[in-house]
Amino acid sequence: MTQRGRIVAVLGALLVLAGVTARYWVLATVGAALLLTLLADWYAVRRARPLTIARTVEPLVVERGTPCQGRLVIDPQRPERSLMLQAIGAAQAPGGAEDACQLVMPPQGGMPAADQACLTTWVHDLIAQAGPVDPVDPFDPTPVAGAVAKVKTLLTGLAPTSEEIAAVQADPAALRGLVQGWTETPEFQVKLADFLTVALQQRLQAEDIEQFDRLQRHRSRNALFRKVMEESFVRTALDLIERGQPFTQVLTTRTWMVTTANLVLLRYPDQPTADKRLRHTLVGDAADAPPGLAGQVRQRRWYLEAIAGMTCDISQADALDMLFGFINRRRCDPEPERNVLFDSPPLTEADFADWRLVELVPANEAAEGDVPVAFYDLPTLRRAERLVTGLHRTGFFTTSVFLNNWPSNADNQFRVTTNQTVLGALHAGFVASEPTEPLHTDGVDPAHADPETACYGCHRQLDPMRNYFAQSYGFDYQTPAPNGPEAQVFDPADRGGFAFLGVTAQNGDLDRLANTLARHPRFPVAWTQKLCLYANASRCDEADPAFTAIAARFADGFDFQGLVVDLFSSPLVTGLEETETWAQAEVPVGITRRNHLCALLDARLGRQGLCQNARVARVVGLIPGDDFARGAADFTQPNRPSAFQFAAAEAVCEAAGLVVITGANEEFPVRDVPTAIEAIVTRLMGLPAEHPRHAGAVAALSAHHAEALALGQNVNQALRAAFTLACLSPDVQGVGL
Fold this sequence. Notes:
With 737 residues, the protein is mainly α. Helices cover 47% and strands 6% of the residues.
């Protein structure tokens, strides 16, 4: 082995050892890649597609991806972008300080400059000796019909018309105007809300929170309860977008879209622990209760017909259950009955639907005349346009859903909360090698992260940042700090500190954290990347000029709807022109996800809530949807077909056929087979009569229908079989190209 070979072998072994020790698998993967590449005598350099991280660790990263996915260990065409040179500190990430792929050796060690220079020279010599790489296949643009279908399906669930396809064929620039129009449809609002639910982490995943667990004892009320919690900040973000406000306000806004039920849930955690033990009286005789709801609120004495003939005391904590329509009858009577559901609970269905904007004011900023409102004071909450809250509420990362998804305790100490906040805002997480030095180390716990270990590289940035949360919340997110075990963990003198991807800040409260994140240069890059993932189920190359241009335009005003139009009319999504994103990765072909399939079926069949139908709901959960996960920047998305995916899709399509294909449905008449199949092809598959595949689809479904009849199926069953086959076609099951 040559001297250079020995250096590479030692380097690879050190990277593997450091990565395994620190449980930093990307680092270990780079080391393993170096060793494998050396053993293969660098044969990969001679190929048109040299060794990439995506190929090396594909089984590990295919579901979630990694910020370095698709980067070349040694890039023969652009040596300065070789991941190996970045790992040893001899090259910078292509995207600079804001690049999420900040892979370098841990700061405790590092490689001497002389060795870096040696390896850099060796890489260039190696590439020169290998000669020109084999030419890659010429770029094959996506057919216009496929590109337009992908974009419109993603944005609305609908298929393009013949006129829309013809317009783009005549002038590719026409796509931008079409996209602009599609983003102004009700169907787009549904798709955008679904994207924001995932991107802002507003889907309730932890169902054992105090309020939710107590109220899930009755499913109909539970559904309303969950709905208003999950929709509140998504509606807030939609309102910001509709009004053309800078999208950075998803981090900074205190004016939220809420219902009266939301306000009850927001005010309940504000109650001091002592107040939660205050007594309320329930009476079963109207004569024993004050007249009117306002009087009952003032005296905390409630008339509930469901306990006729009884009187009992409940704690203020139990009063929350009572407002939503529950009470444990055993608190009033020792009979064996367990729970009582009130026919007319104090919170009516209207209180779950009276959406409006309400300003949430922290108690320490309350103006003269701002009177705190008790969570059970429904008359006042129903009128509220401004509400004083004891707990700090600003942006998506302080909603009840977000906080309850990421519970904290005396061991975790807001670390997960902080990490998920940064992931949600900037689409990048803490790594030991990130070089930004914090302004101070207040709150860094040496017992938790030894300065001599690689873990310290993350904690030196993460731990001071969690002080922003520690100054505002108790570990249960239901009491202001310091009020519980957190008082023994955090020093009140500890300052908040921010250091991440080239930006530093210190001191302040959660508003300071929100504003720092909103001004971070990574923010426009992050949200452009999130939309890329939504569109392609894979990352865009953040160094791609097409990507950087779109992110730069978004940074100029943070017009989110403009970002959607820019990205979805660009070749990054359409594939109508070659980009570096498409040159480095396989063509992004996506399979349907649950959220996309349900929106498509509703939009194309003209139905609302088909996936909520009992038949479909029983099986639709078998299809994974876009989601978020702890510690992952990228969404969890199925992006490759499999036998399991096909079986799940078949079950959903069969269930949908049972709902849609009935003898009474004139849209798909079972006695008029040509008309029914024509409707299935044009509406469900989205292939108008002028489409080149229309006639073939009609012929295939007609033959399938005839075979079903020949096998003894009745007319309903035969048409459902044709419907299922159409539903399983790539025109329905694919959101790629």
